Amino acid sequence: MTMIRKSLLQLIFSGSFMKRWNDKLRPVEFWEVDKQAHKMITAWVLYQLNSEKLSFQEDIDLSREIIEGGIFEYLYRLIITDIKPPIFYQIKANPVHYQQLTEWVLEQLEPRVQPMDNDFWNRLVNYFDQKQEDTLGRQILRAAHLYASQWEFNLIQEINPWDEELREIETNFRQSLEDLNYIKGVENLIARNNNSIYRFLQQCGQLRFQKRWSQTPRIPETSVLGHMFIVACYAYFCSINLKMCGLLSQNNFYSGLFHDLPELLTRDIISPVKRSVQRIGDLIKEYEDRELKQRIFQVLEQGGYRGVSERLAYFLGVEVGSEFTKTIYSNGTTREVSREQLLSTYNLDEFDPKDGELLKTCDSIAAFIEAYTAMRNGITTDQLQQAVWRIRTDYSHFSLGHNLHIGSLLADFD
User: Fold this and answer.
1) Cβ distance 240 to 404 under 8 Å?
2) Which of 34, 298, 300, 403 has a CA between 20 and 30 Å from the CA of residue 4?
């Protein structure tokens, strides 16, 4: 029986502890999970631009390669932890040494990942086979990685004027991105000329500065950006566990990756405030919709990226009023469906399905692990205790499917 384990959820969350650039003077702390979120948002944009002329099945295959490749690379990074990039690239340049390191990494990952789904595990193992060809999906991920890392680098460069290593790093970023300039959209990352794609990715990057639970001390503090990536990973794992079709699984990942994008415009307004008075919640939603249209959708559309804007709007549930609604897209219309319909009749790529209920559940699981981890690290505030109790209670008898009981999963966190 396949199952998602507590250890896998915690491993994904552990990127919230992993510092980046920790040998440089930094204006703020940089965390691995935030960088991975920015990387995957960038990869999604590049995928959108490079899939326009692909067949329906080629589009789905490229999307899966990018999503799973991004997750695989993140898991690998979590295991090798503090190996600096220059050292890692030297290891990678030696096939024997890289194979030895990879075998050790896979040994660490297997007990956490393999029980979830054997096919997924086999794809992870094959991804790191040195005989694999350098596909478009891998190239897109490499470009996205370079952009997200360079975005951080630009913030620390000016405050480290004495650091001679930074010149070499800057040159490497520039040359490596220019080498990938044949990929549609990479020129937008390099140009920095206020083009629509660059502006959109810049705004997404700012979500790393926005902390969740801002009135509650926690260890670790998590950002809105990193939280979105964690939810995306959880949503993808749950989709695989429930045997969802390729496009439903992918839509769930991307919906998780963008579900808190409106908080770029409103900040992280806690649920009790939203629920306190119905009209307050309605006003917040109206403001979010207006600002999203003006600052995100219109900017993309005016730059000639209507397809990117429309896809983003679908993930955010703009037409149906919420990202947490179960929907399909058929005959040019987005409409809500029941859970039973989604998992049976509409569990097919042709209906472009999206499971908002699963997304909401994964959002709650991520919040639970944030609060649970903070308490395990010695922070026991009323807000954290109430959050853990409320989420346990809300999901104690809740199941997304016959082999995915959320109450049982949360019960593993003693």
Assistant:
1) no
2) 34
List all residues 6 or more positions away from 287 whose beta carbon is below 8 Å from its beta carbon: 265, 266
Please state the φ and ψ torsions of residue 211, each to the nearest 5 degrees.
-90, 140
Q: What is the pLDDT of residues 92-105, one digit of tens each?
A: 889 899 999 999 99
Q: 339 CB contacts (<8 Å, ≥6 apart)?
A: 326, 357
**Checking DSSP bridges between strand 327-330 and strand 30-31, what pairing results, if any?**
unpaired
Residue 392 to residue 294: CA distance in whole angstroms? 38
Overall average pLDDT of the 198-222 stretch? 91
CA distance 293 to 199: 15
**Contact, 362 vs 256, CB < 8 A?**
yes
Name the residue with tokens 């930074």. 166
Please identify which residue in the block is written with the tokens 């991975």. Answer: 36
Residue reference for tokens 């979120």: 37
Percent of the chain past pLDDT 70, that is, above it, reads: 96
**Cα-Cα-Cα-Cα dihedral sign, residues 49, 134, 247, 400:** negative
For the chain, the farthest-separated pair of C-alpha atoms sits apart, in whole angstroms, at 63
Q: Which domains does the chain have, with CATH numbers?
A: 6-209 (1.10.3210.10), 224-411 (1.10.3210)
Count of Cβ atoms closer than 10 Å to residue 376 Cβ = 11
- Rounded to an integer, the average pLDDT of 79-96 is 85
Three-state DSSP string of 149-199: HHHHHHHHCCCCCCCCHHHHHHHHHHHHHHHCCCCCCHHHHHHCCCCHHHH
127: nearest Cα among 76, 85, 187? 76
Whether the ω angle into residue 220 lies within 30 degrees of 0, i.e. cis, is yes
Alpha-carbon distances, residue 190 vs 136, 150, 175, 183, 297 (angstroms): 19, 10, 10, 12, 22
Residue 31, strand partner residues: 19
Strands 399-401 and 333-336: unpaired
Task: Give the pLDDT mean for 308-335.
Answer: 94
Residues 79 and 109 sit within 8 Å (Cβ to Cβ): yes
pTM score: 0.94
Region of residue 335 (left: phi > 0; alpha: psi -120 to 50; beta: else): beta
